Amino acid sequence: MMETMDKFGLAHCDLPTMMWNVAVMLRMVAVKIEGSAKSIPIFFYLLAAVSIVLYFFNYYASMIVFVLVDCRETGDVLAAIMALSLSITSLIGINKLMYMYIHQDKVQSLVADYISYDRELHWPGTAALMADLMRNVKMRLILFWAVTMGNAFIFNLQPLAMPSEVSRLNLYDKHVVYGLKFILGITNYPIALVNIVICVFFICSVTSCIGGLLIVTTGYSEVRLLALSQEMRDLWSDAHQHYSENFEGDSEGKKAAKELNNYVNYRLQVIVKSHAINIDLIKKLEGIFRNAIAVEFILVTAGLSIDLLGGLEDTFIILPFSLMQVSMDCYLGQKLMDASKVFEDSIYDCKWENFDVKNRKTVLLMLKMSQRTLSLSAGGVATLSFECLMAIYKSVFSAYTALESTMK
């Protein structure tokens, strides 16, 4: 048992183990990403179905009744704002889950392609670099999971911090099972508590698991780009080392130049193939999630705008959930773009001026390929980056100021 749990730690940062980590978490929400893995137990399908039904009852059916009936009678605008904010924000993870269900075959194919890519021989000189970089990817995965699930624990522990049972009931009337009394004719705190605990953990589990898949896949593509960059920079010196270990005499002269360029040609072909596979994997990944991310950005903008409208003193507990998701997506996109730029620079820095004409043509082809920066997008409209993240924050603030002025 302890050996299995240890695989979720930083001691195991290889791609197969990290994919297994994500696969185990996704099985709990009835998503299978490894085609060769065992079938998901029926219990998890039932648990996911019950959680989804409870979610839509709590966050949409009850919310509509609460906003349209109770809030209109009481005039409690803040309660209506918080209800809308929670419903919109919580839909981000469910949106991605629906895409996972719809494109499950494509996701399984993508995961299999990444595992196959990892099985290809890595250049020994970059093994240490890849190990360090994959450790960073695992740390991102653990951090994202900890923040997301930690947010769920904090949200569910709110009632314990309330001074009285009355205030706890009021909190759950406004935050949780909106309009429960109108639908079931009761205002039962234990029922509300059970409903919200199940829903919150389900929503955050979905978000952390699917986010984990994006972190591992984009992180591995980033790591391979950086490893290829190091390989390009060391190419000419490796060629000289190869010559000195396998041939007699110095590395000057026509014979030496021919052997050096034969070695360079072989290595360049391997690098070109690896880079082409990486490009294909990122395109497949983006093709699966681009529309889901676009919907996520729309929901985040709307949810954060409403959060600010309700006042941070009342809605601050909701913000980390939204901000962590959109920030992580943009961070992953930016890291992928940065790695692409590093790879492009490494091609300039590979001492190509020493190569023969054939190898120079190969380098020129690689340079043209590398200038098409690898990136992720939201619906093909916005490229995920820090610039995109700042644009979202600006959009949120603009929407907030417009709504605030309208309400005044």
TrEMBL record:
One of its GO terms (cellular component) is plasma membrane. The chain crosses the membrane at residues 42-69, 75-94, 141-161, 191-216, 374-393. Signal peptide: none annotated. Its main location: membrane. InterPro entries: 7tm6_olfct_rcpt (IPR004117). It is a multi-pass membrane protein. Keywords: Cell membrane, Membrane, Olfaction, Receptor, Sensory transduction, Transducer, Transmembrane, Transmembrane helix. GO terms for biological process: signal transduction. One of its GO terms (molecular function) is olfactory receptor activity. It is found in: Cell membrane. It comes from the Eukaryota. Belongs to the insect chemoreceptor superfamily. Heteromeric odorant receptor channel (TC 1.A.69) family. This is Odorant receptor. It comes from Cydia fagiglandana.
